[in-house]
Sequence to fold (748 residues):
Amino acid sequence: MAEPRQGWGAGVAILAVVPLVLLVGMIAWLFSDGAEGLFATDLPPVESVDVMRHVLQNDVIHLDVVNSGPDPTTIAQVMVRGAFWFHEITPSRELNPLQTARITIPFPWNEGEPVEIVLLTSTGLTFDYGIEVATATPGVTARALSRFAMLGIFVGVIPVALGLTWFPFLRRMGKRGLGFLIHLTVGLLAFLVVDAMFEGFEAAHEMPSIYHPQALLILGFAGAWAMLAGLQLRSSSAERSEVSGIRMAWLVALGIGIHNLGEGLAIGSAYVLGELTLGAMLVAGFALHNATEGIAIVSPILRQPGSQLSRLVGLGALAGAPTILGCWIGAFTYSQFWALLFLGIGAGAIVQVIGAILGGRALRETLAPINLAGMLTGYLVMYGTGLLVGAA
Amino acid sequence: MFLKSGDPIRKTFGAGLAVLGLVLLIGAVVFVASSGEALVASTDSAMHGSMLVGLDGLDLTPYRNNTVGDVGTDRFDPDAYLTDELESTTETLADGTVLRIFEVEAVNKEIEIAPGVFFPAWTYNGQVPGPTLRAREGERIRILFTNAGDRPHSMHFHGYHSFEMDGAMLSQQVPPNGSFVYEFDADPVGLHMYHCHATPITQHIHNGLYGLWIVDPKEARPPARELYMMMNGFDPNFDEENEIYAINTVAYHYKRHPIEVQQDELIRIYLANITEFDLVNSFHVHATFFDYYPTGTQKEPRDFTDTIIQGQGERGILEVRFPHTGDFMFHAHKTEFAERGWMGLFRVLPAGDGDG
Fold:
């Protein structure tokens, strides 16, 4: 039997195109007159409209909506608190699938009250949206920027920095202590992954299914993991050595930084949506929760000689500062997409970090009782401090 | 799981993973940025194009409880409904009795119940409410009914009639493409109604099969400007609650197009409530009082008031004059209904002006 021919002749190119041509031909026929009515039904269109976010200004409610159904739809009227209300829709009341629009409703909403809004389509279907607690959406002003930056600093930057100050103490620990600590880090990180992914799937339920939110979450997760894993394999193979402690510390900081960006997003948006009342208790909870992340960052570099001060500052900034950015994004331009994508990216990045830490070790070492205890302790510490921040 | 350093497979694998990850991330960001475009749109509200200013410069923009747009009158004109009656032919029977003959057809038709909101109605003669049937006490009434719909329908009249003419029992439902002749005396005097009695009856009535049936007394009521009004509601999303309420079907029609009347002119309103799902509906008029004749069967008014309540199927005649000129609201004093479309205006013009 002859070998199949190899190479890139014109014949091969045609072979590649044939299936595409057939596919295009079939689709063209489906839309032609000949096939008209073949799959047509008298059923009314399937309509779905989702509100992506709301913006509240003085006596005005803005809603950003999307047609999340397979058919065109027209938003005919808007009801606020059970009453028809004047409104404008830009660019159009008629929305094709996936088309978005902004509904602007001048309405005398009151601070702190819930507001129920109903969108009535041309076929009489209704889509409800509830604002749980009405509160003015911050504009992008210097004051609001600095306010949310402060929030990010308190829940992200300071706690991580405080965690890093364990460094002088931790580097005096013995070999067994260090092993315990590194596996404690693994436990901490594992909690973050579990927490982020379940939160992501929960959030995905509330998103229009037309966006395949679960797939979006996995996209972020797999994308982040694959990219970091690829980078690590390439760089470590070039140096022909195991991942160095320093590189590992940066990887951990990067993973945690991406995670904290997502956390900042969640905090900023929850605050703006009125779902979160920020009190000293909550900020303290986040501080405790995130301080443990500092341990995770420093544990790989405890055996590095010399002063580490400038490196610690850099690691802390990489891990903590994204919280500020996240708070800004969440507060000013929140979208479910970004939130979900970053939850996935954060989790994927951390999985890669866990893989890098454990990958350099023998399974026997990882499963030693003291190290198992370390992992369990790390997980439980995160679980305990997580209770302090509740749903956030 | 982790390949040894320097392995060429490992190198390729690593590079592949890095590229894959990069592509996935870029794809995700592009996807999000494009689909979420409107999400980061400016929050400046450049609108308020139709800004209204009230007392002392008060910005009225946020306080506008109304629908947006208007309803075309080519399908159904609520202004015409106020005064239109179904045309009839008459014959004189051997004993001198006048036989009045109406033709009514049940037909499916899409109607517009609020600007841009369409409802697949079941109608009499293509309109909701159905046409107003009016006759004089003592006349013999014959209705040639055909069912052009796709479900059994009937006409059940309030008033005296024989069992065969009741149109209510299952056995009395007229099948699609079928027809039936209803015949009875115009009795008693008063404001009544007719409606479909097929099952499920809530759906048949809610979908639009109802109308006014008026029997005038032999001695005519005093001359007046006469208006027909049915309080109805619609549940277009089928959650068994009305989203839209109206007088004569179209939400806020008479608010957008006030009913013009003359100062001190006698206005006689034939008012009936056919609203499904809610226990009662109500009628309230501003800046005046009216005489109320429940069911229109008595010569003396039962009440002198500005607000009445009607349960479903209840009806009555209101006689009212406006002593002052200006725009005066009339609406359900169940304000929830008023906020959902059951609100109109009388535009009272000085005597001698307008078309009133």
Strands of chain A lie at 49-57, 60-67, 73-80, 83-84, 88-90, 94-95, 100-106, 115-121, 126-131. Chain A touches chain B through 72 residues (CB under 8 Å). The first helix of chain A runs from residue 10 to 30. Residues 88 and 104 of chain A are 5 Å apart (CA to CA).
